[in-house]
Amino acid sequence: MPSERLYDGVDYVPLPGWKIFMIQLLNIAGLGPIFGAILGALFGPIVFLWIVLGSIFIGSAHDYFSGMLAIRHDGKSITEVIGFYLGERVKTVTIMFVMVLLILVGVVFVKGPASILTNLTGVENAVWFYLIFAYYIVATIFPVDQIIGRIYPLFAIALIIMAAGLASHMLLNAAPIPELTLSSLYNMHSSAGSFFIYPMLFITVACGAISGFHATQSPMMARCMSSETHGRPFFYGAMIAESVIALIWAAAAMAFFGGVDRLNAEMLLHKMDPSWAVNLICSSWLGKFGGFLAVLGVVACPVTTGDTAFRSARLIVADFFKFDQKSIKNRLIISVPMFVIAYFVTMVNFDIIWRYFAWLNQTLAVIILYTCAVFLARAGRFHWVMTVPAVFMTAICSTYILIAPEGFKLSTGVAYPAGIIFSAAVFGVFLFANSRRRRQAAGSLLAIK
C-alpha cells in the first residue's frame, strides 16, 4: 500500500481504520448534506428519490472508484489519475479547473464561519478571519496525523450525533414527514417557474447524492489506508453515511415547518439561508445541546472543508511538478503563493461567482465518472456501471448551464434538447475511443502471434 511503501511522515502516513472513515466522512460532508438537503427539500419529497438513488448508483460508486484508482496510482491526486486515463490535455485543463474550485471553497469557508462567529461573540470579523486563515495554513502544512488525524474524527462524531438526534426526535414524536407517493412527485418549489426539478434539483443536492469535490479529498485517505479491502467501507460507505445524513436533514426541514409549503414560505422570509434553519431546528428539537451542535455544524464543518481544500490543492500542485513534500520548506514553497492568492481573492465579491460552484462541482464529477468508465473499459470490465451515470450527469450539467440565470438563460425548449444532444455527443466520443482502443489491442495481439 502507498502508506507503507511511500511513507514520508507527512502525507503518506498509515492511520487506524476508524479514523480514516471519520476523516473521509467529514472531508466529503462538511455542510453539503445539511445545507444542500434543506435547499433540496424545497422541491418536495422527490428529493428523497434523488438522494437515495443518486448516492447508491452514482455518488458512492464515484467515490469508491476515484479512491481506489488513487490507491492503484500510488495515492496520486485525482488530476493525475484523470491524466493517466483521459490524456495530458484533459489533465492540464482539469488541474486549472480543480485549483479554481478548491481555492473558491477555501476562501468562502474562511469568510462564512468568520461572519457567523462575529455574530455569536461580538468579536471583530477581522480577528476570526485571520485566526481561521492561520489555522488553514497550519493544517495544510503539518503532517496529516498531527492535526487532521486528531480533530477531524471528533467533528465527524458531532456531525453524526446531530443527525442521529434529529432522526430520534422525528421517530419518537411522530414528526409529520411528507410521504413519498406518486401524487407527491411534482415540483413544490416556491420558484417552480425557474427552479425546475430537471436539472435544478440534481445540482442543488450535490454532496448528498454525488459531488466531484469528493474525488479531490479521497486521495488524502488513499495515502493513509493499510489495505485495499477498506475501499468499500471507507469510500463507498462514507458516501452512504453522508446520504443518510442528507435524508435526515431533508426530512427534518419538511417536518419541522409542517410541510413543504410552509418550509418554502419561511425560507423566502429568511433569504433562503439554510444556516438559519439549522440553528432553529437544532435549538428547538435538541435544546441547548442542539444549539451547540448547530453552531459546531455551521462553523466547524465549513472550516474543516476549507482546510482540506487547501491541502488537496497543495498535493495536486506537488504531484503535477513531482515536487517532494517531505521537507517543510518544500511544502511552504507551494503553500505560501497559494495562500497569498487566496487572501487577495477573499476581497472579491463572491455573490455571483459562488453560484457557479455547484455547477463546477458536478462538472468535475462528470469528468471523474468518465475516467472511471475508461478504466473499466480498458480492464475489460462492465463499464456501463460508470458510463450510464456519466451520460446522465453530462446531460444535467450541460442543461443547467444553458438554462440557469447565471448561465445562458435559454428557454427549456432549447436547453433540454441541446443538453441531451451534447451528452449524446460526448457519449459517442467515448464509445468511438473505446472501440478504437479495442481494435488497436486486437491488432497488436495479431502482430505478436
Explain what this protein looks like in three dimensions.
This protein has 449 residues and is mainly alpha-helical. Helices cover 76% and strands 0% of the residues. It has 17 helices and no strands.
Explain briefly what this protein structure is.
The protein has 449 residues and is mainly alpha-helical.
What are the key terms here?
449 residues, mainly alpha, 17 helices, Amino acid/polyamine transporter I
Mean pLDDT: 87
Contiguous runs where pLDDT drops below 50 for at least 5 residues: none
Structural class call reads mainly alpha
Looking at the structure, the CATH topology is Amino acid/polyamine transporter I
Proportion of helical residues = over 70%
The percentage of residues in β strands lies in under 5%
In the CATH hierarchy, the architecture is Up-down Bundle
Question: What is the name of the CATH class?
Answer: Mainly Alpha
CATH superfamily: Amino acid/polyamine transporter I
Largest sheet: none
Please write out the topology.
Elements: H1 2-5, H2 17-28, H3 32-41, H4 46-72, H5 78-86, H6 88-121, H7 125-141, H8 148-172, H9 197-204, H10 213-222, H11 231-256, H12 260-269, H13 274-321, H14 328-345, H15 355-378, H16 384-403, H17 412-448
